[in-house]
Specification:
ten-stranded mixed β-sheet, Isopropylmalate Dehydrogenase, binds magnesium ion, alpha/beta, 2 domains, binds 3-isopropylmalic acid
């Protein structure tokens, strides 16, 4: 097939992991006989430095005409002054809104060989396999903001339609998995959460009566993620809770450098990004873990291009590379030798090129 893919390297380690993602997509194209064309565009701090705004019109135009968008990371200390007028993160939020990608899928998968990289005990990690469905274009991230010298405010709003559509995405995933859905809110305090809970319960009873629904308050969910992570299958939650809980959940997998994400809307153009940030402390050193980005390309192949066999081949190649012992610094334990971003990527590419399993 032919596909147009926009690449948004962004800031910090973003360009390094985007390079790995592009190499993987190129290798999939040549191994499986596809033609992928890439268009690299600016976003975040890199765009602020070049043209004064974090999401230039040319970037939006390229993303909108693409079949899929891959993003590295945005942000960094250079643009973090709390009094700055423009911020890199505004570019990412505006892009999510412009593409209408309200459903952010964050699978949390554990590679058995990486259990030692997690701060949790192995017996707690046994059997962990979950997916967090984070609402991505609403809530406190997008509400009106105010600030003067005395006070500041961020408005959190959710509409029934916004809640219904994200719960449907999560319920469909649950139907294909364990048949269980856990909805996370803060309904003992927040009005938006009380609406979230009542809409979720009504919709699930009416449209998905066969799915078992559990409801958890976000503070309890944060604890249960560490005490009984294997009990979770599909979690659905609002924007900010999903942001926080998935950084926490990454520790189950051993590193923030392991978790991919897919942001989907009603059109097939999805946005794919590792859940990690720009990691300014290691940027430019060539040691970032490319696994989250490469696993995000698998999601791109699956959800935007409909190439399931190719997606599985990429996921298998990551797993084989980890089984073979390759470790970037973030997932290395005492005795492991550490490989660079380029070496880890090269090993994964080698495993992809061995071609389809017959
Ligand atoms: C993420 C990131 C972003 C978010 C930041 C960079 C705006 O933390 O994708 O999880 O908060 O959504
Ligand atoms: Mg985050």
């Amino acid at each position: 097939m032919e596909a147009l893919i926009t690449l948004l390297p962004g800031d910090g380690i973003g360009p390094e992991v985007t390079k790995s993602a592009q190499q993987v997509l190129e290798s999939v194209a040549s191994t499986y006989g596809h033609r992928f064309q890439f268009d690299s565009q600016r976003i975040g701090g890199a765009a602020i430095d070049a043209v004064g705004e974090p999401l230039p019109a040319a970037t939006i135009a390229s993303c909108k005409s693409a079949d899929a968008v891959f993003l590295g990371a945005v942000g960094g200390p250079k643009w973090s002054d709390p009094n700055a007028k423009v911020r890199p993160e505004q570019g990412l939020l505006a892009l999510r809104a412009a593409l209408g990608v309200y459903a952010n899928l964050r699978p949390v998968k554990i590679y058995p060989e990486l259990v030692g990289a997690s701060p949790l005990r192995p017996e707690i990690l046994a059997g962990v396999d979950m997916i967090v469905v984070r609402e991505l274009t609403g809530g406190i991230y997008f509400g009106t903001k105010t600030r003067d010298e005395h006070s500041a405010s961020d408005l959190c709003t959710y509409t029934v339609v916004e809640i219904e559509r994200i719960v449907r995405v999560a319920a469909k995933l649950a139907a294909d998995r364990s048949g269980r859905l856990c909805s996370v809110d803060k309904a003992n305090v927040l009005e938006t959460s009380r609406l979230w809970r009542s809409v979720t319960n009504r919709l699930m009873a009416a449209e998905f009566p066969g799915i078992e629904v559990e409801t958890l308050l976000v503070d309890a969910a944060a604890m249960h993620l560490l005490s009984r992570p294997a009990a979770f299958d599909v979690i659905v939650t609002e924007n900010m809770f999903g942001d926080i809980l998935t950084d926490e959940a990454s520790m189950l997998a051993g590193s923030l450098g392991m978790l991919p994400s897919a942001s989907l809307g009603d059109s097939s153009t999805g946005l794919y990004e590792p859940i990690h940030g720009s990691a300014p402390d290691i940027a430019g050193k060539g040691i970032a873990n490319p696994c989250a980005s490469i696993a995000s390309t698998a999601l791109l192949l699956r959800y935007s291009l409909g190439l399931e066999a190719e997606a599985l081949a990429v996921e298998r190649a990551i797993a084989e590379t980890i089984t073979a012992g390759a470790r970037t610094a973030d997932i290395a334990t005492h005795d492991d030798s550490r490989v660079s971003t380029a070496q880890m990527t090269a090993e994964i590419l080698g495993n992809i090129r061995r071609g389809p399993v017959t």
